[in-house]
Specification:
Elements (H helix, E strand, L loop, with lengths): L1 H24 L3 E4 L7 E6 L5 E5 L4 E4 L7 E3 L10 E6 L5 E5 L4 E4 L7 E3 L7 E6 L5 E5 L4 E4 L7 E2 L8 E6 L5 E5 L3 E5 L7 E2 L8 E6 L5 E5 L4 E4 L7 E2 L16 E4 L5 E4 L3 E4 L7 E2 L9 E6 L5 E5 L3 E5 L7 E4 L4 E6 L5 E5 L4 E4 L7 E2 L8 E6 L5 E5 L4 E4 L7 E2 L14 E2 L13 E6 L5 E5 L4 E4 L6 E4 L11 E6 L5 E5 L4 E4 L7 E3 L11 E6 L5 E5 L4 E4 L7 E2 L8 E6 L5 E5 L4 E4 L7 E3 L7 E6 L5 E5 L4 E3 L1
Parallel strand pairs: 38-42
Antiparallel strand pairs: 1-57, 2-3, 3-4, 4-5, 6-7, 7-8, 8-9, 10-11, 11-12, 12-13, 14-15, 15-16, 16-17, 18-19, 19-20, 20-21, 22-23, 23-24, 24-25, 26-27, 27-28, 28-29, 30-31, 31-32, 32-33, 34-35, 35-36, 36-37, 39-40, 40-41, 41-42, 43-44, 44-45, 45-46, 47-48, 48-49, 49-50, 51-52, 52-53, 53-54, ...
């Protein structure tokens, strides 16, 4: 007996050492990330093989194999970080880029090196176009129009007679060209820009793009779904019905347009628009290939087309724009939730919804039918789930996310016409139009959402109906609530701006204000909350804030974090082991309930916005640029 005890005692340190080593061997790994952390503004192919993409952060991408691979240019990074808006080449070697602060770049070696030219302006240049190797134009803010006769070595100002932004320029010869821009501006020149004359566009909306198929036939498009067409060189422009969706009560802008011939054309908006009859009818393609703003489109051949857009979006079509392959897309992900070991959902900006049914090995996009920012997701069962977001968004699925439909009405603006969302107090009914920043299901029947201006909603019937709740505090009634967590159908916390912490023990009928530091005014935000039971909870927020309670929130203790970065999410698997994630990919861990927090090696520098644990204990965190990491 004593010998057995002696052996056990001798082995105990080894067992503890093995457990610690096993825990230490675990590491966070990247499941999904973006290769390019930039928004793309333009794409241009000079032939089927040679193409370029430009965007934010001085991003320049190049392909020599028809888009099979893309590499960054130049070989040595540019010594400045600005937004680049337009790229044009006249051969595989010679090209120009226009961008912010009057930037004009030129290459004569296919983009291996770029020279910054003296453009004679500091205005942001939205567009550049060259008719040949010598003659080029650029335009931008304040009606700036500049012209070069020597390939961009020198630029001179041309009179546009407008203060509206010049968004697009196209010439069909070195003499004949058009420029479009703010306030429905369409300018025409027949002498290389020495004189520009105004044409009647029939719209007051900004025209962001112009495409002239010939010197007589062309199209222009822009804000509020504006789409106009000319058959006589611009002497007259006729409105075409674009049929863009009205996502928030207003038609979506159309950013670019391109025609392969007089019948087949594509336009890029929040949707891809397509016509096969010269624009007499335009059809938004469903489902959207990505839920992003699509900034530029080009048809390289009658069959091959490219589109680029925000959040690193690159799309390719091989059937004249009828269907699209997603080459790259990386919207920010703001929330993640797992129903069980296998099934999980992540949501994010621009209506992004991703789903896994294999434990996170693969994530597939689901069409939410929504273009707003999504901030919370929860499921009742494998079929029924809910997502919340800005503009009062509350959407529902009953088939595991294959289809989603709106429970709320973004155009309602607080009038209470959404029958399944009830704010019984007329004094707070306006909050039905406010956005929601978090959602948590405590049971399959009971969930709470919190958001703008102290908005709180609750369902007790699995989402069939949602009822507004009031925090009962005048100050909190106008604070944004950013996080919510319930341990059961009665007890939970919500946190938010200016150090807001509120708790309920009666399902939200009444709320009690709690203070992490009584008597102190908080200017910081609390962005995440997690509770193990009615007594034990943690909250995290700006400047590395971590607070813990062991007495239901009667007292909160500031825990020492080895960072002053903002923390966005916190998760514990028991009273000892927990994690917090936040700014610049920081990951903190504790094995003693938060008495000590240590920085873990993070596989990403993207800000992480949420963290959760699946039923099997696997940890998942999501964040900017579509990052998904696992522990």
């Amino acid at each position: 007996m004593n010998r057995i005890c002696f052996v056990c005692a001798a082995m105990l340190p080894l067992l503890l050492s093995f457990q610690s080593a096993t825990f230490a061997e675990q590491q966070w790994t990247v499941v999904r990330d973006s290769r390019w952390k930039a928004g793309f503004a333009d794409v241009f192919f000079v032939d089927e093989q040679h193409g370029w993409i430009v965007g934010t952060q001085s991003t320049i991408l190049h392909t020599v194999d028809g888009g099979e691979t893309w590499t960054e240019q130049p070989t040595q990074p540019l010594p400045f970080k600005i937004d680049l808006f337009k790229v044009r080449f006249i051969s595989p070697k010679i090209g120009w880029i226009a961008g912010d602060t009057g930037t004009v770049l030129k290459t004569v070696d296919g983009g291996k090196t770029w020279m910054k030219m003296s453009s004679s302006t500091r205005a942001a240049l939205s567009t550049v176009f060259f008719a040949d190797e010598k003659h080029g134009w650029a335009g931008g803010d304040g009606g700036v129009l500049i012209h070069t006769k020597d390939g961009g070595a020198t630029w001179t100002r041309q009179e546009s007679d407008t203060n509206n932004i010049i968004s697009a320029i196209q010439f069909v010869t070195p003499q004949v060209g058009w420029a479009t821009g703010g306030g429905g501006t369409i300018l025409y020149t027949s002498d290389g820009g020495n004189k520009w004359t105004s044409q009647n566009s029939t719209t007051a909306s900004t025209l962001d793009s112009v495409f002239m198929l010939t010197d007589q036939m062309g199209w222009a498009c822009g804000g509020n779904g504006a789409l106009v067409h000319t058959k006589d060189g611009g002497q007259s422009w006729a409105t075409q019905e674009s049929n863009v969706p009205n996502s928030n009560g207003m038609p979506e802008p159309i950013w670019d347009i391109y025609f392969s011939d007089e019948k087949l054309g594509l336009a890029s908006a929040e949707f891809v628009l397509r016509t096969t009859d010269g624009g007499e009818t335009w059809t938004p393609l469903e489902p959207r290939p990505v839920p992003n703003r699509l900034r530029a489109v080009q048809m390289v051949t009658p069959q091959r087309a490219w589109i680029v857009g925000e959040f690193g979006t690159i799309l390719r079509s091989d059937d004249a724009g009828a269907t699209w392959n997603v080459i790259s897309s990386s919207n920010d992900l703001t929330a993640v939730s797992f129903l069980n070991d296998k099934m999980g959902w992540a949501v994010g900006r621009s209506g992004t919804v991703l789903h896994t049914d294999d434990g996170g090995k693969t994530w597939k996009s689901q069409g939410s039918g929504n273009v707003f920012e999504l901030f919370g997701v929860g499921f009742v069962d494998s079929g029924k789930g809910y997502i919340v977001g800005t503009n009062g968004t509350l959407i529902e699925t009953t088939d595991g996310g294959k289809t989603w439909h709106s429970v709320s009405d973004p155009t309602d603006e607080g009038h209470g016409r959404a029958e399944r969302i009830v704010f019984s107090d007329p004094a707070t009914s306006w909050k039905s139009a406010m956005g929601l920043y978090d959602l948590h299901f405590a049971t399959p029947q009971d969930a709470w959402g919190v958001g703008e201006a102290g908005k709180i909603v609750r369902t007790s019937d699995g989402g069939k109906t949602w009822h507004g709740q009031d925090s009962g505090d005048v100050m909190i009634a106008f604070n944004n609530l950013l996080g919510v967590y319930f341990v059961d159908n009665t007890t939970g916390w919500a946190v938010g701006a200016t150090g807001t912490v509120i708790k309920t023990t009666d399902g939200g009928e009444t709320w009690t204000v709690q203070s992490p530091a009584p008597g102190e005014f908080f200017s910081d935000e609390f962005s995440g909350v997690f509770a193990l039971d009615a007594q034990t909870a943690w909250i995290v927020g700006s400047a590395g804030a971590i607070y813990a309670t062991k007495d239901g929130g009667e007292t909160w203790t500031r825990q020492i974090a080895p960072t002053d970065k903002r923390l966005n999410g916190v998760c514990f698997i028991d009273k000892q082991k927990g994690w917090a994630v936040g700014e610049d990919g920081i990951i903190l861990s504790t094995t003693d309930g938060g008495v000590t927090w240590l920085t873990q090696s993070s596989p990403t520098q993207n800000t992480l916005l949420d963290i959760t644990a699946a039923k099997d204990g696997t940890l998942w965190a999501v964040g900017e640029w579509g990052a998904i990491v696992r522990f």
